[in-house]
Gamma-glutamylcyclotransferase family protein
Amino acid sequence: MHDLISQNDDVYLGPFITQQPYPLVCGLHGDPYLINLAGLGNRVKGELYSVMSRGLVRLDELEGTSITHYDRRPIQVQSEDGAVSKDGEAYFANSRFRVRLWEKKGKVGMSEYSQAEGREYVRIVDRVIKSKSGSYVDDIALFLSSSY
């Protein structure tokens, strides 16, 4: 995000919270996943940015929307004090594995992805892919079907 801000491709609008509760869990390698199951989980805290179309292309690539890692979907958020409401978009776990991920995590979610969870994150360059295809999305399927 810092790179996009420095190139004037996005603007930080501040901390916001989802209007509806959603599950938020950590998956394989500590990746955070917002799960599109409105009404379950918690109202989730996060950051809101206004992103230009050029920046959005870069974010979609980073989030793996073309390989069905995340889906970008509409969401309603509000400022933490409730004074400002906005329509936005968020990256949700892909629909192919969202329910299984929620179940694997015991149907227990977080209200935010904090520094504690961030310490468990494994950078992409440091990940060991175990699937025979060499695909991270296939590794997620392995993670969900085993005690991985």
About this structure: The helical segments are 2-6, 53-63, 98-104, 115-118, 136-145. The chain is about 25% helix and 30% strand. Residues 53-63 form the longest helix (11 residues). The chain has one domain: 2-122.
